[in-house]
Amino acid sequence: MDKICIKGLEVFGKHGVLPEENALGQKFVISATLFCDTRRAGRSDRLEDSVNYAQVSELLKAETESHVFRLLEALAWHLAKEVLLHFQLVQGVTLQIEKPWAPVHLPLDTVSVQIHREWHQAFLGVGSNLGDREGQIRAAIDFLGEDDLTRVVKVSSLIETKPVGDVEQGDFLNGAIEIATLRSPEELLELTQGIEGKLKRERKIHWGPRTIDLDILLYGREVVRSESLCIPHIEMERRMFVLEPLCEIAPYAVHPLSGKRVRELRQALLDGQGNV
């Protein structure tokens, strides 16, 4: 990925833990590395095909001056988020904030915080078999799109499938969603569970009926295994109701554990090498 670099932007702000820092303010030095594809701008020589670093610098200055944070970490995340949300061509940003006048009463040049944030591609499975199934799925997609840190990129067709397990219940509508998100996997789980709560999802019976089911299937090529979260989704390779809609929107997405593409997983299931 190409880089556009802004180095040593001096800005006056009122950030710090001490009350006098918030009242009097001090100098901060900001450096930003913007990760983006510059090939189109290189061919066209048009500013509108690139990221205007003057506008990025103005944004960094304005946001630093107009907010007050106790910690450099909070200021850094706020600035990184604003850059990624306002400049569509920027896929990632590394941001360093220096505080040369930090009140530590020791002989040092500066203290600084550096962070990297970027857009992540993720795929979600969505399903419903209670009430207005399609309406609830559409509502879940709308809630995803309303999140400041998430963009809905693609939505598959909805397919009707039989329920899994021994619980007697109605058929499901299932689909898949591609998103771009600034959230970590754990933060994305918080978002999906919050949406399920808004749509009255109740977890009473394992594999039982539900108004909405919103699962994280893939998050880039990351592997997460914790008590609360498993990515890639532990059942996705064995479920046609997951692979069928996912293959529609992302046939070449790769399962990070098996190394197989979604279309290969679907074909293996069709060939009888897995569960339904």
Count of beta strands: 11
Look at the helices and sheets and give the structural class: alpha+beta
Distance between the termini: 40 Å
Low-confidence stretches: none
Average pLDDT, rounded to a whole number, is: 92
**Overall domain count:** 2
Please indicate the percent range of residues in DSSP E strands (runs of 2 or more): 25-35%
Task: Determine the fraction of residues in helical runs and give it as a percent range.
Answer: 25-40%
Structure explained in plain terms:
By secondary structure, the protein is α+β, with helices and mostly antiparallel strands. The protein folds into two domains: 2-118, GTP cyclohydrolase I, C-terminal domain/NADPH-dependent 7-cyano-7-deazaguanine reductase, N-terminal domain (GTP Cyclohydrolase I, domain 2, 2-Layer Sandwich); 120-270, 2-Layer Sandwich (Alpha-Beta Plaits). It is built from eight helices and eleven strands. The strands form three sheets. Strands 5, 6, 7, 8 and 9 form a five-stranded antiparallel sheet that branches. The chain has a four-stranded antiparallel sheet with strand order 1-2-3-4. A hairpin with a 4-residue loop joins strand 10 and strand 11 (230-231). The longest helix is centred in the first third of the chain and has 15 residues, at 72-86. The protein starts with a strand and ends in a 6-residue tail after the last helix.
